[in-house]
Write a structure and sequence with these properties.
This protein is mainly alpha-helical. It has helices at residues 28-33, 55-76, 79-97, 104-111, 118-135, 142-153, 191-202, 209-223, 230-244, 255-260, 263-274, 279-313, 321-331, 337-344, 348-360, 379-393, and strands at residues 4-5, 12-16, 38-42, 49-50, 334-335, 365-366, 376-377. The strands form 3 sheets. Strands 5-7-6 form a 3-stranded antiparallel β-sheet. A two-stranded parallel ribbon has the order 1-4. Strands 2-3 form a two-stranded antiparallel sheet. It is globular, with a radius of gyration of 23 Å. Keywords: ATP-binding, Nucleotide-binding.
């Protein structure tokens, strides 16, 4: 494929007619501002373009890629159970970028189908989208993106999954029309061709992976191909591209956690991209990667410390299922008897015996469910996960 290096093109605009449905409920002033044509973005094609960045941005992106790879190699050797906890952390952080928040306890309960929190269920769905992104990383095409989106919203908004949006969407401004929006993505008729184009860019093998990932993510968010879930799907795509580019091979590095500490910077970088300036989004992705690795190391350190404390507190035979239950708790910090029996491949009686032993040692506490459907939680793990989120929100250093 021939590529071209030149100044990155900014978006343009086109006027589109707007037809009100007549049933809008708004002030007279708002209704007046929603009359007549509106301006939608015209998004340039990028499949054959090569980013041209200053040396310091390229060097930072290269250093960040190397740091991600070192982190992946270090913990890939002991990926179970840390791979599951890192993926959950990335999913929670990506959701929080969209102001979807839930405690680690509620997310763990939602994984068991036992949470009343809609946000916790959305975080679990986001984890499914992340898994789909990693699974589909060997074929980064438009069908794969649609599958990621279906994994994200198939249970909660099935009607908008399975294809691209068919109507105009906008970001900010009024709820009844796009005329006063902060950003109006391209008209729906342009979305299929633009998505084919950006995924062709994502599959290229002649670009630095982190630079390519940052640009593809910004282009994806500019296209905004779905009615909802674009941000979370776009950040799942980041994980798929890192895996496809072999920056990561074993674990999901929580890059979204690195974005949480500077959300305004993230939004500003996407805005700069639309003006034809690549440096901010590439630099932000590099910074987020360093922050993700630092916070991820701290999380795993906390979990290892908890595991060591459990080893001192629990006295059992070397072949006891209680030891294997401790490993399970690092990736599934809320459990019930049936889950433990299935995961450890033991009888429910043996599973309950292991649970009771860890309760006696203070590793587990009852987490509701009544006498018949009791659940138990590992407070050390939940505390470590919540601390991870708090560090991400304040910009971990």
């Amino acid at each position: 494929m021939a590529t071209e290096t030149r100044a990155w093109p900014a978006i343009g605009h086109e006027e589109r007619p707007w037809q009100r449905d007549g049933g809008e409920i708004a002030s007279r002033r708002e209704l007046a501002r929603s009359r007549g044509p509106y301006r939608a973005a015209v998004v340039p094609r990028i499949a054959d373009l090569t980013p041209d960045l200053p040396g310091r941005s390229l060097a930072a992106a290269d250093d960040a890629s190397n740091e991600l790879t070192r982190f992946d190699a270090e913990f890939g050797a002991v990926a179970a159970p840390f791979s599951a906890i890192l993926l959950r952390s990335e999913s929670a952080s990506s959701s929080e970028v969209e102001h979807i928040t839930a405690s680690a306890r509620q997310v763990a309960l939602a994984e068991l189908g036992a949470s009343d929190s809609p946000n916790a269920r959305l975080v679990v769905a986001n984890a499914q989208a992340m898994r789909a992104a990693v699974y589909l990383s060997d074929r980064l095409d438009t069908d794969a993106v649609i599958e990621m989106h279906r994994a994200l919203l198939g249970d909660s908004q099935e009607g908008i999954t399975g294809g691209w949006r068919e109507r105009q969407v906008w970001i900010g401004g009024g709820s009844i029309a796009p005329h006063t929006a902060e950003f109006v993505p391209p008209h729906a008729e342009h979305v299929p061709a633009l998505m084919e184009d950006v995924m062709a860019f994502a599959r290229r093998t002649d670009l630095p992976v982190l630079v390519q990932t940052a640009v593809a993510h910004a282009q994806f968010e500019t296209i905004h191909p779905f009615p909802d879930g674009n941000g979370r799907t776009g950040r799942a795509l980041v994980q798929g591209m890192l895996r496809a580019g072999r920056v990561t091979r074993h674990v999901t590095v929580p890059v979204s956690a690195g974005l949480l500490g500077d959300l305004q910077g993230y939004y500003d970088a996407l805005g700069a991209y639309r003006e034809g300036r690549l440096e901010p989004i590439v630099d932000l992705m590099s910074d987020a990667s360093f922050l993700a690795v630092a916070n991820g190391r701290r999380l795993i350190g906390d979990l290892r410390a908890a595991r060591a404390h459990w080893d001192d507190a629990v006295r059992a035979r070397a072949d006891s299922s209680a030891h294997r239950l401790k490993d399970l708790l690092l990736r599934q910090p809320v459990v019930h008897t049936k889950l433990v029996a299935a995961e450890l491949e033991v009888s429910e009686v043996a599973a309950q015996t292991s649970i009771d032993r860890l309760v006696e040692a203070g590793v587990l506490v009852q987490a509701g469910g009544g006498a018949r459907y009791r659940r138990w939680a590992a407070p050390d793990v939940l505390t470590a996960l919540d601390a991870f989120g708090q560090r991400a929100r304040r910009g971990f250093r």
